Amino acid sequence: MKILYLETSSKNCSVAVSDNEKLICLCEEVSENYKQSESLHTYVEWALEGAGISLKDIEAVSLGKGPGSYTGLRIGAASAKGFCYGLRVPLIAVNSLESMVEPFLGDNYDFVIPLIDARRMEVYTAVYDGGTGKELSDTEAKILDETSFEEFKDKKVLFAGDGAKKAKDILNLPDAVFKEDVYPSAQYLIRKTLEKIENKEFEDMAYFEPFYLKDFHGVKKKKSEE
């Protein structure tokens, strides 16, 4: 089964193609300027070309659904829906935090905790078992302080993601490992996607929305008071 993967929730614009569990091609780039709008469809073309297949060969589309960049998520969701409608294939959506955990499973950590940088001292996060990848706490927007995650003080913990830098500066966890250069990546959506296909956990495209977690913070014009 040929599957197209899109992950646009962060600074990493990432596209992958797999044949069942085998990764065939990956195209991605981390950019401070969030280049999803200009790069995503080019990366899809490159990934398909690298995989040696055409778009009509795709049998399902998988999307990293967030949390993360509001604009990036909207672009990814719109593109995924467009491909699914055009190809008449199912849409699968995976929590983007799970793709940050996947590469570290089995690396002898008790827990892997992804941290996506949000506003000020806030991060999007959840706690995962370091061996199985099982989600142990719900995804949340968490404001960090010196007492955050103190329940893991005597455990082997990896904090992964661009929110790890500010976490390292404030958390009182001297034995924890912090990896800042970790972003959601399309290549790490494969395992969870295949599980969802097996269980027929497909999205209803008419109602699907990305996992924004928080409302968009834009500049609102005040209504004139009469």
TrEMBL record:
Residue ranges of domain Gcp-like in the record: 37-186
UniProt source species: Chryseobacterium candidae
InterPro entries, sorted: ATPase_NBD, Gcp-like_dom, T6A_TsaB
Gene: tsaB
Domain of life of the source: Bacteria
Residues annotated as transmembrane: none
Name recorded for this polypeptide: tRNA (Adenosine(37)-N6)-threonylcarbamoyltransferase complex dimerization subunit type 1 TsaB
